[in-house]
Amino acid sequence: MQNELIIVSDYCNKCHIDPSFIGMLEEGGLIELRVEDGEPCLLFSQLPDVERYSRMYYDLSINMEGIDAIHHLLLRIEEMQKEINRLHSRLRVLGEDF
Questions:
Q1: Segment 70-82, tens digit of pLDDT
Q2: CATH architecture under which domain 2-97 falls
């Protein structure tokens, strides 16, 4: 389990971001922190998301509400793309019947 986690303070020091930013992401429900040996930790699987959110926040000056809105829009786009793929598959099957 320890190999799947990175300590928040280590990540923040390495990436030069404020640890309170990670706290804001967690409060907003965008990431989940785990506590291991008394230290808040990120799952490695969340690192691409944290990196994306930090670029939005620090590089593009998008506030947390904006990041949350973008997150929900991206989830919606992903759901719609899955539905499109499902419908394409269904059309292919129906097209073979004719």
A1: 999 999 999 999 9
A2: Orthogonal Bundle (1.10)
Measured distance CA(18)–CA(8) in Å, rounded: 10
Contacts of 45-53 with CB under 8 Å at 24 or more apart are 45/4, 47/6, 47/11, 50/11, 50/22, 50/25, 51/15, 53/25
3-state secondary structure 17-74: CCHHHHHHHHHCCCCCEEEECCEEEEEHHHHHHHHHHHHHHHHCCCCHHHHHHHHHHH
31-34 CB contacts, 8 Å cutoff, 24+ apart? 33/8, 34/5
Distance between CA atoms of residues 67 and 78, nearest Å: 16
The pTM of this model reads 0.80
